[in-house]
Amino acid sequence: MQLLLVLLLPVVIVCDINDIDEIIKKLLVCRKETASLGVSIVQDDSTIFNKAYGKADIEADIDATLETRYSIGSVTKIFTSYLAGLHAQKGNFQWDDELVDVFKKHGLQFSLQGKFRSSEATINDALAHRTGIKAYEVLLSDGRNLTRADWMLDVVPLLGEVHPMRDTFYYNNWMYTLVGYIMEIADKSSYEDQVKKEIFDKVGMDNTFFVSDGKMDKLMGDEIAIPYSEDANNQLYRIPLAVLKLIGPHDPAGGMMSTTTDMSNFIKAVLNAINKKIFTSGC
């Protein structure tokens, strides 16, 4: 397991900041399944703690650094949601717009399983995990040579129901990819380019990218954290980086790779946006 610790919540530190280092070291002694860990603590507009622990590559005995890139998984959804907010501000769509109508506006046919869901599901429903569409997680990285458009227009309409719409919270990566695709057709540019322009470039996330853009192939040594998982005996085993590339079409749901430093820059920007509204006038 490789971890980039990102907490976008108020945290009360009940110990001296100088003790954090020893606390984390003791934690990693207990949690031997964690290969490496990046920790950044932000207070107001300052980073008051920023340190890397463990190995970016266990077999090669390569230490993790503050610039080691981690797959941040579903933390990517924060960026997708923020970008959707920008689109709403621009009038490209509104949160309560029905998905079918958004696609129709751009000359595309779209549907979901069930007459009510197909006609009534909104952007907000998709982002709030309340469509009730079955997750089918295995399909997200099965290696089919399909584009994002193929997945969204041809596969998503076939996904079955597991809950009635708006009946319960049911986590679904597909819906975040769907909103990412909607933003592509609305802006006539890729989701990845939009995130770079509207977020990465503005807050100083210079070492952050998506698994689909090919940068991962050029990273070596401590520049990237090798993913690991656990077997039945709680032993770590290495996961090929090629597996991460399979997520590419679903970048809006979980395809971002970032560093401890870049994520602390993002957190500072979020805090500043709340206090000073630095992103947009409506943030």
How much strand?
Answer: 5-15%
Profile the largest sheet. Answer: 4 strands, mixed
Mean pLDDT score, rounded?
89
Structural class: alpha+beta
**Rg, Cα atoms, Å:** 20 Å
Low-confidence segments, given as residue ranges, are none
How are the strands ordered across the major sheet?
1-2-3-4
DSSP, total strands:
9
Query: Given the C-alpha coordinates, what overall shape results?
Result: globular
Q: In whole angstroms, how far apart are the ends?
A: 35 Å
Describe this structure in words.
- It is a single chain.
- With 283 residues, this protein is an alpha+beta fold.
- Helix content is 37%, strand content 14%.
- The chain contains 11 helices and 9 strands.
- It has helices spanning 20-30, 76-90, 99-105, 115-120, 123-127, 148-155, 173-187, 191-203, 241-245, 251-254, 260-276, and strands at residues 2-5, 36-43, 46-57, 62-63, 70-71, 209-210, 228-230, 236-238, 256-258.
- It has a 4-stranded mixed sheet, with helices on both faces. Strands 5-9-6 form a 3-stranded antiparallel sheet. A two-stranded antiparallel sheet has the order 7-8.
- Strand 1, helix 1 (20-30) and strand 2 (36-43) form a beta-alpha-beta unit.
- The two termini are 35 Å apart.
Summarize this structure as a short list of keywords or feature phrases.
single chain; 283 residues; alpha+beta; three-stranded antiparallel sheet; 11 helices; globular
